[in-house]
What does this fold into?
Amino acid sequence: MVEETSQCRPRRIGILTSGGDAPGMNGAIRAVVRTAISNGCEAYAIHEGYEGLIQGGAMMHPIHWEDVRGWLSRGGTLIGSVRCDRFREREGRLQAARNMVLFGIDALVICGGDGSLTGADLFRSEWPHLIEELVSTGALTEEQVAPHQTLNVVGLLGSIDNDFSGTDATIGCYSALSRICEAIDAVFDTASSHRRGFVVEVMGRHCGWLALMAAIATGADWLFIPERPPRDGWEDDMCSIITKNRDRGKRRTIVILAEGAQDSNLNHISSSAVKDVLSKRLALDTRITVLGHIQRGGAPCAYDRWLSTLQGIQAVKSVLSMTPETPSPVVIIQENRIKTSSLAETVALTKEANASMHNKDFEKAAILRDPEFLEYHSAYRHLNTTDHPKLLMPTDKRMRVAIIHVGAPAAGMNPATRAVVAYCLTRGHTPIAIHNGFPGLCRHHADAPVSSVREMHWLESGDWVNDGGSDIGTNSGLPSDDMETTAQCFERHKFDALFVIGGFEAFIAVSQLRQAREQYPSFRIPLVLLPASMSNNVPGTEYCLGSDTSLNTLVYFCDVVRQSASSSGHCVFVVEAQGAEYQATAAALAAGAMTVYTPDRPITLRSLSGDIEYLRQQFLQDHGANRAGKLIIRNDQTSTIYSTSEIASIIKHEANNRFDAHGVVPGHFQQGGKVSPIDRIRAFRLAVKCMEHLETFAGRSAEEVMADERSSTVIGIRQSHILLLPLGGATGVEATDTDWKRQRPKTQAWLEIQEAVDSLSGRSTHS
Ligand code: F6P
It folds into this structure.
């Protein structure tokens, strides 16, 4: 429950979606409605955005707990959204204020873009004057307005464009990116088969975020975005890169063009102009694919469900705790943290970014949107070129960088390796793949006929941009299995740096190598770990590569079984999730499960019978309602007594034919197929940062490396930051954040979402 800090605590909270629609908006509505109800408020749906507020009547109505059942997985917005010009006029806002008072609504949560939020803030600032006018003109009485002296407004950012300053992501942008990547992955096949070129046009209005991220996530050959207009003569630059890539054996050519693409004089660059250049100058058989509104539709990805749910909860918390003096907040996200900031300031920054673009200050526009935008863009450009002489390191600073995968396969291992290879080739380092982990390294040592250690070339890793699993092979074996041979191999292959990608075993492996440096000089090289594990359990980070792909796969599985549960009447599915507590908990939130069982929340006879009783009551009240199927997610390590099938059998038995229960296990299916866009982008970004870090050791002596704590590090995302943290030493991750027994970090930031799962399913009020 939210603490009451305001004397004028709202009782009725209206929710509306405005501007465009975006996947995830329904999740936000669901979270706002249920959190409002849990906090003793009434929730009101306002249909068709501000138009509904102006029209009133049937466009505004109470919305109940059950009304939003199943909304989490549905695309678009189920309460409608229009771009409303009438709300721009004072007359429209006057009418809206009247309806708000008549319906007794004293707070608004608005999910939309910058225009919608600007309107909301203006509405709030004008509120006392609007009320005054309504009374003076006799449209409302003093008594009617008495309880409505203030209006609380909170903004949620919903747009696929991700064009808002001050937040890393808007609700919907990653779902749109997923759609774009799915489409381009499919285009790959035809492009490769026919050695064709494709110009793919993506949405984003005046913002190039979707296009830039799509280019990184698909390894596109060339990119046009509004914030980085190409220099004059771009036709030659583009043709030269594409020719080089094709000469190196690449069969497909992909050019991504943002719909707002422009040159430095703000002249639009069209997909047909780009196609003409490719066809005429390179005689490349080229097609145009305009993805259009496909990008905006469809079920939201796991990230958008998580984001919209947690932001919806935060919106209600903010609405209930703000005072008349509090500036209207907008809910944002920075890396992994949901926060609020000033709506007016955020909108102002966004407008400034747009104005900078009109004034041709492209750099400022990009920085205002997101300080990392330019970093991403320049990394994309450099890694895409790979033979820019200016980027080469001096010869005495070029390193032999060994890459190894350790532990279970995780999506993101291949894209990360691809980025490391491209980075190395761009800078003149030698990328070396170690096949099949440490056992692979040791097995083929000395004079073995097959070498598991070999230099990598640009083309072979080219296709790994979206490939799941590990193409160089991963293994859970540790250096300690044969430390002597491992050290000999390091020496023989003259590694100057080791880039490890993997999960908790990889963490142990790097720790072992670090500690063995005293004894084995060949380990006195910089060691870096990029965490990759669907279990998301590597100390030092809140995020591991592969965890997003796996989560999306599990959520998709849950959507399908829930559909079956709903179709066959009263039914509950107990889904067994691999991937430590994280996967079960995050999937429960993203799939809208009734509850989650993990080792941290053990199942007892008491809790189980409480849940059965809750199910009984729920199904009794449902009267065969829509989408009534229920899900319980159980982590596979939860209990040795209560297995998934046993829990399902007990529920079924106790239900006494009133409802049905089944246990289902996705098993290794959960590892996922193609890598999710989030894992691809983060693989790229984190790999580049790791390589930049390794390079700081280039040319340093073994003693210097050993003396530097930062020579063995793990990269991670923590709260709002990307950090490279030393493993050893009193303040290192091994000592401060490692639960060695349970093989996970000591701090598990996501554990708090378990509470959100239960509160949004209604279970917590019951138990
Ligand atoms: O703002 C979202 C967005 O999908 C943009 O990417 C695109 O430019 C625009 O809306 C399309 O608008 P409409 O759906 O009105 O054609």
Remarks:
- The first strand starts at residue 12 and ends at 17.
- The domain at 557-673+753-765 is CATH 3.40.50.460 (Rossmann fold).
- The chain has four domains: 12-170+300-353, 174-295, 388-546+675-736, 557-673+753-765.
- Residues 114-136 form the longest helix (23 residues).
